[in-house]
Specification:
Elements lengths: L1 E5 L11 H12 L4 E5 L12 E4 L2 E4 L1 H12 L9 H28 L1 H6 L10 H22 L6 H19 L12 H14 L6 H6 L3 H14 L8 H4 L1
Parallel strand pairs: 1-2
Antiparallel strand pairs: 1-3, 3-4
GO molecular function, one term: transferase activity
Protein name: Glutathione S-transferase
Keywords: Transferase
Amino acid sequence: MITLYGFGVGFGLPEISPFVTKTEVQLKMAELPYRKERAMPPASPKGQLPFIDDDGEAVADSTFIRAHIERRYGFDFDAGLSLQQRAQAWAFERMIEHHVYWALVGARWVDPVNFAKGPAHFFDGAPEHNREKLREDAQFRVAENYLLSGLGRHAPDDDVDLAVRSLFALSVQLGDKSYLMGEKPCGVDASAFGVLAGILTPFFDSKLRGRAEEFPNLTAYVDRMMGRYYPEFAWTRLAQAA
């Protein structure tokens, strides 16, 4: 039995972290039995979530977990894709995880209202005398990483405009297909779903979410993926919410 370590339910999502979501969806795609436990990043071999324990072998980082699944269990997440399509899927995955994801981080952690509503509560269990300092330090570290990502160097509207260009690319790639690369979900769909659901959850209000809602095929895609991989989760369909 594989144990998946993540943050757990929150922010109107079945899993707070887009990267934990990615790994969980890929475990479901591969139809591998697993159990899920909550953890904090310091527990991971790489200081970040997700990580898995597979029969005593710890594997950290969602991309390396995918490689482990493919190697150990012989599952091909991109089965049926041509070599060119596999290359395109990898390029979109990098765009999602190294560009769109950071726009999500800005909306959650840098925006003071959203930070107070969401990530600030990660520290509710800390000793009261130290709680606010921990919140300030964590927000500062994340804001610093956001700056280093490149997006944080721009004015707030400019960083959203750049992120929307990537959302537009995803919308064009999706078109009227059910999934990014065709009518069958593949590995990159797990990445896209995790980040897009994180942006579109009604829990947070942001300019990024408002702009993302302008792409109806992306909102329908998130609803589709949620219904397929988290049918038990109480998700208000974005089409209905709109």
